[in-house]
Amino acid sequence: MGPRLVTLDDVRAAAGTLRGITRVTPVERPVGLSRHVGRPLVLKCEQLQRTGSFKARGAYHHLVRLDPVPPAGVVAASAGNHAQGIALAAGRLGMPATIFMPGTAPLPKVEATRAYGAEVRLVGSVFDDADAAAREHADATGAHVVPAFDDPDVVAGQGTVGLELAGQAPEATTFVVSIGGGGLVSGVAAALKALRPGCRVVGVQAEGAASMRAALAAGRPVPLERVDTIADGIAVRRVAELTLAHVQALVDDVVLVSDEEISRALILLLERAKVVVEPAAAAALAAVMTGRAGGEPGDPVGVVLSGGNVDPSLLARLISHGLSAAGRFLRLRVALPDRPGELHRLLGEIAGLGLNVVEVDHHRTGIGLPVDEVEVSLALETRDPGHAGEAVDLLAAAGYRVVPG
Description:
The chain has 405 residues and is an alpha/beta fold. It is 44% helix and 18% strand.
């Protein structure tokens, strides 16, 4: 007999405990982005939730039902969103909270967690180091470990996203949710399938962190040997029996997207919807953009944007990565005769092609060219992949030896 599934009544009870604590986040219907994707979109904006992600919902609902509260309070391991959710909830409830985070956690997330009132301890360099330290702390002090997703109260709290979305997006026939450990998609599916039995719920994982897909294939949770994705918010090595049971019973499909597709989705949200999200949230839109979300073509689709806690320095790298993945950032190496005026002539050709120069480097030594040649490395902005290919062809036709990359 498997775990008991969270019910609509459980989610409604969670909504009652969260009233006045978390926000009923808005939805957006971006016309330009919908036109680009090819179907109407309804974006559920959890990046506007308190702490910048849906995690505050499940964390508060779990803690408010904790009885008794251990004198040592609560403890958890997290690299970001879970940490902030617990810190907010514990602060509102007057509980001491200790959060173990890897030393590599982004400084803004560390400082935000401290600002909500939790004690933060940096341990090791990866999540597993922090998790082991958190469990040792719990054993030594009696503090209660707050799970990130493997708990019915957490799942019910996350399910309030679906409860809200059912009323906010009555036209949507498919709902798309990113999956890390599976707490969010489990709760959302529990609410939506009860309120809208004919709807489809689709989960999305990064190709480099497909722990739910692995569990579905094996029929049980199995740990991945490694995770490798830019979407750190859904980079989970192993899902739980509880969340797997919900996905098996309630979720219509679980699909995968690549880091390049996630980057392109993040860029589109910035440009077309003026929305800043983290890669884990952009993964859900990536599934729609690639057609993997399924459903009838042209039918409205609800997309849960799960959070917006992206480090500014990472965001800059993600934008560059996304522009490259979208064919709008081109790197070239061009061999030129080593004589006056050749660089000027090359840049004139580039200007004539409508390319914007971002970087230019001129090399004479250490590159294996004949003594009478130099190499110019260029980083260029293009309109789209077609423009990039056209530029390479026209430069070659003008007599230049062009090497992409």
